[in-house]
């Protein structure tokens, strides 16, 4: 066993040079060197040897409170700030979009009272015309049959006169007043809906094209926006000279460039870097070494210093823990990779249970079917626990920052809060993925053995004495992991009921609600109301 740090070659001590061993590999170093390594990363804490990211539990068990809550937190906030600064130009299109949405909304609110009045008058004239039409139709039928009385004939003449009058008024009002205003109102309403959809999803081709337009920061004081290829700011709408990159006052044609500004602009143009994937020129505003190309569908991370594309993997620490606890030797698999065909389909899985040769009891069959059903449901929820931050995760936060709705400190705090929420969901997803992966292995094993020889006399005993207890151990481990994670991170976590239904925290803490203690055939609810 090494007595010296592999990095600084200092002897290990009990505190300042305490030995730290990676939770995944055998890499060792003193706590001081590991902390220095962590603070040099532009990513979450990870092993210097295997590069795997360390989870919250390992960090809490390994490093002191002061380092985690102060030093590391300051570093993380700086990292998040720099990371978001590097992608702010791609958010500029949403600033322009939000401004347009606000403008349309105000216009619609101003138009609404008059539009309501015009609609009411339009409907009134339409109703008056139809009332007279309803009087005319039956009277004309009677007139054709020669059964029209003198009084009815007089009523018909009055109705026809009124019908002509209201029809003329209706058509004139419709053509001259209502339709022009209604068309304008509905066009604005459609534009509002379309822009709101584009703003919320950010996934249309129009948005992708617009993202490429914004190339550099706006030079205007107090503006955080970016210039388009037309050198117009998407936030403050001011224009900038392309030669000297100074604000053009009032679109004046008499703008004269300063020679020193022109030379400075030429120097800046020389300081762009091409994307290693699509060759689009990238301008580094400020921030970390890791850059992000937003050109079309490129979405490539690369190092500003080396020009190399940055790649990485997200690993699941909970699967390693489950393997250690059960004594297995299989390696952990990547998140969202349910191997070997995953969970057997229910028709295939259930077939041997219903065979006339099987000795499996109905109770055992019911338990296995319920576990299968709920694990499939959990598997379908895994995409809602992303393992990488979504591209537009902080869109709303960044838009508010670019529009000067929040100051820089509030912006960074919001980024930190958003990333904390993402980290929690990611780790909950890792726990669920571990559950699904391990259960899939067990269910496939059961299915394969039953298909090979479903008439074995020891098969029911094997399922009841080995498989079901193993599954119960897995369920208990999952709940313990959730509880430990919730306690460590001070957050609510879900739990697996006795029938393997995933219950949200709000269900667990519901007043006068308890877990159902065991499987009961025909039972459909896992929460029993008193």
Automatic annotation (TrEMBL):
Transmembrane segments: none annotated. GO terms for biological process: protein ubiquitination. GO terms for molecular function: ubiquitin-protein transferase activity. InterPro entries: E3_UB_ligase_RBR. This is RING-type domain-containing protein.
